[in-house]
Amino acid sequence: MNETGLPLLSLLVLLPLIGGVMVGYSPERLARSVALTIAVVELLITLWLLSQFNVAQGQHFQFVDNYQWIPSIGASYMLGVDGLSVLFLPMSALLTVSAILASWQTAHLKRLHFALLLALEGVTIGVFSALDLLLFFLFWELTLAPIFFLIGLWGIGPKRRNAATKYTLMMLSGGVPLLFAIIILALNHAGFGSGHVPQELTFSFPVLLETPLPDALQGWVLLLLVLGFAVKAPLVPFHTWLPTTAIEGPTQLTALLTGLKLGAFGMLRFALPLAPSAAVQYSWILGIVGAITLIYAALIALQQSNLRRLLAYASISHVGLVIIGISSLNVQGVQGAVFQLLNFSLIASSLMLIAGFLQHRLGSTEMVHLGGLAKIMPRLASLSFLFALASIGVPGTSGFPAELLLLIGIFTSHAGIAVAALAGAVLSAAYMLIYFRGAFFGPLKRPYNPNDALALDLRPREWLLLAAPAALVLWLGFSPNSLLNTQQLAAEAWLSHLLDQPVINVTPVAEQTDSVLTSPE
Prior knowledge:
It is a single chain. With 521 residues, this protein is mainly α. It has a domain at 282-500. 71% of the residues lie in helices and 3% in strands. The protein contains 23 helices and two strands. It has helices spanning 8-25, 31-52, 88-102, 110-129, 133-142, 144-154, 160-191, 205-210, 215-232, 241-248, 251-259, 262-274, 276-281, 283-302, 307-327, 331-362, 373-376, 378-391, 399-413, 415-441, 460-478, 481-499, 509-518; strands at residues 62-70, 75-81. A two-stranded antiparallel sheet has the order 1-2. A hairpin with a 4-residue loop joins strand 1 (62-70) and strand 2 (75-81). The longest helix has 32 residues, at 160-191. The N and C termini lie far apart (51 Å).
């Protein structure tokens, strides 16, 4: 359904990619202005698309663009969004605008840097809106190239090239089980048709949702999809790339990686719905994996003295909570999980950008070099404290309704795991408040001259990029229904698909034909 008649999603994917080419050929002095203009236009289009989204039909895919892509194997160029995915588009666009503003002073290979940020935005929008699994996989893999170069060329650590290689190799390894699962699903669909390959292949997500998948295959498909998405989420033990990237990579990129949890979104969108019976049967295992990730990462964060590494482990811990919420298989858990994923784009990314500001001013985010920052940077300290409170779910911030929904959903389905969720909330408050008390309200570690550039408070550009997420954090904290209403019907339809599945233990048509042909009778 596309009531506007315009290919808005295709425009959102192509505009940043074309814009990246324009930035690459623009004069050096205009590169960042051109990039910012394109990113702002992209944000405005996503907001207009959101305003045109029909909430009353939120369970259905809207703004669908569907064209033949590789008809010989049944692959199509198919984009669409529903209530679960539509809000990720403006969040991605807003985060890209913030990343461009945060890297405004970049001097090294400026045109390439901003072109890569725009290219990453385009393929990320593709990941959130792809409805063909092969197209989704293409966008998924295309995120690797810009991230590899952004880490390797603009990283701030001495081992940035090793970090870029580590990230790329881990993501490539995660792509292998994803591709296997996609092929199994396509072949299964062909088996329930005439059995002819490749004529009967399809990678259409809506079609595959309606294609029966035998129980013998569902467990394998679920395992392969969860493994692939767990690497990018990340979940323990596939999490090690994120702390490394946080220390070695540029902070604006790390803000993007912590703010856009593509792996967790993939589990919600594809992994559980495509193997519904197995998802219900093994949801408790997914909940345990989430609980291990939540507690393990929180305990590691509690030991960190570097703010960037602490925020990386905090992000991993919160992903664990999201996975537990998804595994609860109730409306509260699913809505809380989506709410928390959107919070990553507002809270986790903003905290990482603030860590970048401190790194730029002071040359370090180690606790030993910080102290008393609230006295010399009151505006930065105020916003830092707001986002820290939102991160631990204090009432009045967007973190509170998200965590409340998650805890209600988890208590309803997994009472034992709920204890781990509560423990994670306590640990989250501990590591955030301990670090911020020492860094912002502790004694001054060294004398500062008020006119010293190192002690400069937030610049107007930095105020601008933090003002929008701060306002949204407060608005969603006091008016969460403005977000929850958008995803209500989609969350209910998602659950209905999983919980209303009959037991499927059938033989595909192709196998039935083979058995008849080989029968001695």
